[in-house]
Amino acid sequence: MTHADWEAVVVSWQRSMRSAGRADSTTRKRGWQVRRLAADVAPLGPFDVTHDDLVEWMAGKSWEASTRYPYRSAVRAFYRWAVEVGHIDESPAERLPRENLVVLSVPGAWEAPVRAWVRSMRVEGKPETTVNVRVQQLRRVAAGLSPLGPFDVTLDDLVEWMAGKSWLNETRRSHRSSLRSFYRWAVKAGHIDESPAEDLPKVRASSPRPHPAPEDAYRFAVLTAEPRERLMLRLAAEMGLRRGEVAKVHTRDLVQRDGGWSLIVHGKGNRDRVIPLPDGILSELRSLPPGYAFGSPAGGHLGAEYVGKLVAQLLPAGWAMHALRHRFATLAYSIDHDLAAVQELLGHSSPAITRRYVDVPDTDMRRLVDLVGKTNNQPTRATTGG
């Protein structure tokens, strides 16, 4: 399709927006935003564009969040309209990442390989959050090792660079993982024969440091919250949902299973899980109109960051929404100490991760020590010879 084809479709969409009562300023602005997409993806036509094309387009823009969000919203609205009027069967923009899109800022020799690595991670289905973390970490490495190119780097270069960082162990482990991932990709892609990161020294895992939100803080937040924010609080604290999972809750995800109601939770990495619903939360969800529980005025659902911000405002200073997930893990584990069940409920890939969420109270440890002490102090019956 030609530029004229884009223009005809965009004009038709703008007429539809005006007929629906959209303000002229909104109609003009959204039309301009989609025309910018058209110019950047040429010679692709509007209905030749794929999800990956859109992700790559947005990832290449060094926009602030305040700019990125309106563009994402306009593109999603355009393709939703295209589905409604029958131009296409499915919108390529429906699952566009909402936040933290990768913005590359690496020395020139690194840029093309890093972009190819990003594409590879997305093909593998890595969560966008993982892609962003890994790219930002590699960006730090590239800046620190410049002017060396990515395929000139040796094991000694990596060891020396990492040794100069006063990081916590978890930060060090994460950077090591990103480096190993990048260079394993480089070997598979034929850029190098051997990974310089493969023999990076192992980093010992830190001891678990759970931080469940205090009970009094949670109770006070529930009492003072508006209904929408109260439901956000409860989903995190009483069901263990992440902020991104809370944001995506939809009434269609309520399902009957094993004699009760459950919620399909859309987790990290497009991994869904099903969690039984407590009666109180079920009642609140069933009272909502069809659609997202936390819908956005721009369409779709609220962003994970915004949900986290709303909840954090209800908690004492220094406590984030994720602490409510730690609260759930700690309370769930305390009931019958079934770590595997808690792991499933939280959607973790391993019990070791779940253990980092569980705070074992001093009273539990004291009780165990006391029981062992009492067992060892039991008098033994003397035996006498006949």
UniProtKB/TrEMBL annotation:
<dbReference type="GO" id="GO:0006310">
    <property type="term" value="P:DNA recombination"/>
</dbReference>
<dbReference type="GO" id="GO:0015074">
    <property type="term" value="P:DNA integration"/>
</dbReference>
<keyword id="KW-0238">DNA-binding</keyword>
<dbReference type="InterPro" id="IPR044068">
    <property type="entry name" value="CB"/>
</dbReference>
<feature type="domain" description="Tyr recombinase">
    <location>
        <begin position="208"/>
        <end position="370"/>
    </location>
</feature>
<feature type="domain" description="Core-binding (CB)">
    <location>
        <begin position="4"/>
        <end position="83"/>
    </location>
</feature>
<feature type="domain" description="Core-binding (CB)">
    <location>
        <begin position="108"/>
        <end position="187"/>
    </location>
</feature>
<dbReference type="InterPro" id="IPR013762">
    <property type="entry name" value="Integrase-like_cat_sf"/>
</dbReference>
<protein>
    <submittedName>
        <fullName>Site-specific recombinase XerD</fullName>
    </submittedName>
</protein>
<dbReference type="InterPro" id="IPR002104">
    <property type="entry name" value="Integrase_catalytic"/>
</dbReference>
<dbReference type="InterPro" id="IPR011010">
    <property type="entry name" value="DNA_brk_join_enz"/>
</dbReference>
<keyword id="KW-0233">DNA recombination</keyword>
<dbReference type="Pfam" id="PF00589">
    <property type="entry name" value="Phage_integrase"/>
</dbReference>
<dbReference type="InterPro" id="IPR010998">
    <property type="entry name" value="Integrase_recombinase_N"/>
</dbReference>
<dbReference type="GO" id="GO:0003677">
    <property type="term" value="F:DNA binding"/>
</dbReference>
<dbReference type="InterPro" id="IPR050090">
    <property type="entry name" value="Tyrosine_recombinase_XerCD"/>
</dbReference>
<comment type="similarity">
    <text>Belongs to the 'phage' integrase family.</text>
</comment>
